[in-house]
Amino acid sequence: MSRTSAAGPAARVLSLDTLVRVSRGRRQPGPPRRLPVPEDMNVPLGCDAVSVPARFGPLLLSRLPRVGCIYADGAHWWWIVPSDSDVALEWPTPAHYVTGAVVPDAPRIPGLIHKPDGTLPYTPPIPLYLAVCQVTGTTPAWSRPISA
To answer: How many other CB atoms are found less than 10 A from the CB of residue 137?
Structure first.
């Protein structure tokens, strides 16, 4: 039995996450400035990035079991994470999540300050998320009380 709707046969339902990603893709005017993953590394899961103010960088390093590529400029540290590491996560302020590892409004691309051993550039996103929550004093989204 085939499904039909007002939109036509077998209409596809889009999630809110999908709609947000489509919207993000349309906002990038001009050529994007991406964090360059070293050539000898593999990115089988794609790349996004999380930036934090530079003052939090050393605090996060001490809380993480594994660290991937980290880039820095004077104001921020940028952590490479697998694509879609923001799905169902609310990264706390002042962290900033960017898809495609695109550095918004950067006059130049931040420099690589840490390259992990091995061939994967990723910092695991859940430990990074928990560490960012910890240093910013934010309760992780899944631990917050639900209000009606």
So the answer is: 7
